[in-house]
Here is the input.
Amino acid sequence: GAVVSQHPSRVICKSGTSVKIECRSLDFQATTMFWYRQFPKQSLMLMATSNEGSKATYEQGVEKDKFLINHASLTLSTLTVTSAHPEDSSFYICSAPSGGGFLREKLFFGSGTQLSVL
Amino acid sequence: DAKTTQPTSMDCAEGRAANLPCNHSTISGNEYVYWYRQIHSQGPQYIIHGLKNNETNEMASLIITEDRKSSTLILPHATLRDTAVYYCIVTYGQNFVFGPGTRLSVLP
Here is the structure.
């Protein structure tokens, strides 16, 4: 299947700093990518939809000024957590749809980034 | 909110078939049933999906009832590496909403 590469896999930062997470589609183009967040023992929650060439769409309750999304090309989306605080510590996962046309899309996921804010 | 209901957890003996049920009684005619699984601290892995016919691939089989209100994911010969959280998702297009899933434990 299609491969989505996500980096870094783990990051530890001090409170107040910014952290950038990259998500790349390796063997396909993705005009749309999705960013999820997962807290311990909970399910994935969609944060935002990243759109190549236009602004991201954020889910209700997600601060767009805190979670900056840039979809610079058809294979790269980045999520920047600005001025990170301990409550932002979480597992962040990106995904991209690929294959089969709109009605039979599969979502392929990156391996995730564990963010720990001290 | 997720449109599916799954058992919170299940156990399965290694080498036996694992049958994971999912209820989706409000499914619409154009919505597909997808199954993903997530091994601890990894991104979800695609398993299989279908519309109304039963589907089989190298990983699993998907059985969808005739009224499409429920489905079952079958792992024919479970191994210890199949221990994971399994998510059943009903969606049209790209809107994937994850519920709590079923935590499957494969026991030696």
Notes: The beta strands of chain B are 9-13, 18-23, 32-38, 45-50, 55-56, 61-64, 70-75, 84-91, 102-107. Chain B touches chain A through 22 residues (CB under 8 Å). The mean pLDDT of chain B is 94. The two ends of chain B are 35 Å apart (CA to CA).
